[in-house]
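Database export, one record per block. Field names are fixed; values are copied verbatim from the stored entry.
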Amino acid sequence: MTYCVGLLLNEGMVCLSDTRTNAGLDNISTYRKMFTFEVPGDRVIVIMTAGSLSVTQTALARLGEAMDDPDATPDTSILMAPTLLKVAEIIGNTLAAVRRDIHEKLSAMNQSATASMIVAGQRKGGTMRMFLIYPEGNFIEATEDTPFLQIGEHKYGKPILDRVVRPETSLADAQKACLLSMDSTLRSNLSVGMPLDLAVIGHNALRVTMRRRIEAGDPQFRAMSEAWSNALRDGFTRIEI
């Protein structure tokens, strides 16, 4: 399992993912689940993945082949697509096709594989957009009413996002909200684990303006986690019934 979260704000976008993949209690591995694609001055795209590693890796490989194809067109390459909506459509179609192919191979063994993705980005002249792509290839979009999207083990980290994230939230506070959302998930589910990948895209920057790998034992992350725990305990003791 995994946990990925993306915030779409007036000032920009914040994306955070863990890196744990496990196939049993004694088979735990680390794989990157955040991938960035940039054409300087034209577009920036971030893809975060959750679910079957075979599905997500194959889908990303096919997307990469389409980008490198000398005969690529705006209908096949996310680096040539005219809009972020078209980018989401290309990724959704690719994910659905890979899922069908792998499902056919696994169905004989009564097994199945599924995956989902968050796609965030901006193209020159367009607005920032963020989509959650389902295994079937359809998708939903982040809005002002719901300016964040989650995939994977999302239930533990959702409450703080519901309470504090608004479109006008600053990028600094958004990073804090994402990290505390991840901290809650790490504490409650062993299938989500360090290290973490954090990316920030400023409004109209058309590039990743800040990226950070947070390793286990990171002093800044540990201090933030302890401060949040202390704040929760203090708030709990002050509430009267």
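Remark 1: Residues 3-238 form a domain with the Glutamine Phosphoribosylpyrophosphate, subunit 1, domain 1 fold (CATH 3.60.20.10).
Remark 2: The chain has one domain: 3-238.
End of record.
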